[in-house]
Structure formats: structure tokens, C-alpha cells
Design a protein that fits this description.
This protein has 239 residues and is an alpha/beta fold. The protein contains eight helices and ten strands. It has a six-stranded mixed beta sheet with strand order 6-7-8-3-9-10, with helices on both faces. It is globular, with a radius of gyration of 18 Å. 40% of the residues are buried. It binds adenosine-5'-diphosphate (ADP) and magnesium ion. Its EC number is 3.6.3.19. This is Maltose/maltodextrin import ATP-binding protein MalK. Belongs to the ABC transporter superfamily. It is found in: Cell inner membrane.
Length: 239
């Protein structure tokens, strides 16, 4: 499988705190990769490096074969969804979805078409004229996903997009995200600390700890053949 994203010897420090340590990771074209690890292990930092929101301390990041390590975020062809919805409160859902496209100078008709397509996929068409305050948590998160979708990106980065939602909604949206991926077949890196989410969504899971990847394998393999005791306990394998 042609790697869509290659991360080579990536390191990142905040002052004297080494958060990512010589990290290597290849993500295949169209793969749904889940980064799983407990709070503070560096998951968000890694996503932010891939998105170009943080400058790396060392190493390289390739997307689609191109070295993007020092490219601006907007040049990288990425759509990102954060844990907090980060919608603009003063704009309608339609305004939120089209904002980045207007800034990028896309023609009006093209913007309209992309917004309508994303709204249809996410079933938020009736909500396009509402402001975020008038939406439920799940509707807001769909709108946030919509904002990433309209970018028509090859790569999506999701940072714990469901962790602020209640259990029922989380389960529902999990299914929707999986279906969305099957429909779009884009490359996905999805960060979570939730083992069940990882097991149900992932083609492969990367278990992360202390800024490094301990094991990268299918959910089945990780469950049945955990690389070490930490992975076994974290994933809840039978011992
Ligand atoms: P995760 O997303 O896995 O919970 P993070 O990537 O957010 O972990 O954080 C990894 C480590 O880096 C933590 O120890 C966190 O406190 C630290 N950290 C994150 N962002 C910053 C920052 N801007 N400045 C200093 N330390 C940070
Ligand atoms: Mg995080």
C-alpha cells in the first residue's frame, strides 16, 4: 500500500519537555488509523505537527510523497476536527462551512456545491441557517466535521471529536464516522483515549505512550498479540 503519510524520526520538545521522541509512522492511502493512548502521551501534539500547527524540533513529515515539514497548514491538503467544536458562534452553520473556502478564494458556485454536499452527507441540511448556540452537541460536532469535509482533503485528522458527547450520541456518531470514511475513502488519523472507539473504527491502531509508538497493528492483532504488558493492560486483553 502506497503510504499517504510518512513520519520519519519526528521529535518535538516544549522547552526541556521532550513530547515526541524520534517517532516513525506510515499511514496507508485510504487507511483509517487510530492513535490510541492515555492523556498526555503526545497524541494531539503529533496531530498538530502533521497539520502544521506546531513546528517540529526534528524529523520529516511527508504527505502524498511530498515533504510538507515546513509547509503552511493551508498548503498541506488536510481537514482537521478538534475535540472542542471551535465553530464561529456569530456565524450560521452555512457560514461556518463556507468561511475557509471564501478565504481561499473559491468561486461562489463551487462553495455552495461543496457546502450542500457536505451538509447532505452529514444530514445537517435543515440546520444550515442556524447558529451554533441553537444546535445540540451532536449537531455541533457534525457541523465541525462538515467544516473539515468541505475542504475536499485527502487526509483528515480527528482529535477526540466525540469525547465531549454523551455515550449514546458517541456510539451513533462513531457509526456515522465509519460510514463516512467508507464513502469518501480518504486517509484518516483519528485520535482517542477510548479503547472501544479504537477497536470499532480502526483499520490499524497505533498505541502511543510517552511520545513513542509501542505497537502498530490491526485491532485483532493488538488484542490477541499485545507487544507488551502495557499494551495488554491498556487494551484489556485477556491475560
Ligand atoms: P494528549 O493529546 O495525548 O493528551 P498532548 O499532545 O496534548 O497529549 O500533550 C503531551 C505533553 O505535552 C503533555 O505533557 C502536555 O502537558 C505537554 N504540552 C502540550 N502542549 C504544550 C504546550 N503548548 N506547551 C508546553 N507543554 C505542552
Ligand atoms: Mg489531546
Amino acid at each position: 500500500m502506497e503510504p499517504s503519510i510518512s513520519i520519519n524520526n519526528l521529535s518535538l520538545s516544549f522547552g526541556s519537555l521532550d513530547v515526541l521522541k524520534d517517532l516513525n509512522l506510515d499511514v496507508g492511502q485510504g487507511e483509517f488509523l487510530v492513535l490510541l493512548g492515555s492523556s498526555g502521551c503526545g497524541k494531539s501534539t503529533l496531530l498538530n505537527c502533521i497539520a502544521g500547527l506546531l513546528d517540529v524540533t526534528g524529523g520529516q513529515i511527508f504527505i502524498g510523497g511530498r515533504n510538507v515539514t515546513w509547509e503552511e497548514p493551508s498548503q498541506r491538503g488536510i481537514g482537521m476536527v478538534f475535540q472542542s467544536y471551535a465553530l464561529y458562534p456569530q456565524m450560521t452553520v452555512a457560514g461556518n462551512l463556507s468561511f475557509g473556502l471564501k478565504n481561499a478564494g473559491l468561486p461562489k458556485a463551487e462553495i455552495q456545491e461543496r457546502v450542500n454536499r457536505a451538509a447532505k452527507v452529514l444530514q445537517i441540511e435543515p440546520l444550515l441557517n442556524r447558529k451554533p448556540a441553537a444546535l445540540s452537541g451532536g449537531q455541533r460536532q457534525r457541523a465541525a466535521i462538515g467544516r473539515a469535509l468541505v475542504r475536499d482533503a485527502d487526509v483528515f485528522l480527528f482529535d477526540e471529536p466525540l469525547s465531549n458527547l454523551d455515550a449514546k450520541l458517541r456510539a451513533d456518531l462513531r457509526v456515522e464516522i465509519k460510514q463516512l470514511h467508507q464513502k469518501l475513502s480518504n486517509t484518516m488519523i483519528y485520535v482517542t483515549h477510548d479503547q472501544i472507539e479504537a477497536m470499532t473504527l480502526a483499520d490499524r491502531i497505533a498505541i502511543m505512550r510517552g511520545g513513542q509508538i509501542l505497537q502498530l497493528a490491526s485491532p485483532n492483532e493488538i488484542y490477541n498479540r499485545p507487544a507488551n504488558k502495557y499494551v495488554a493492560e491498556f487494551i484489556g486483553s485477556p491475560t
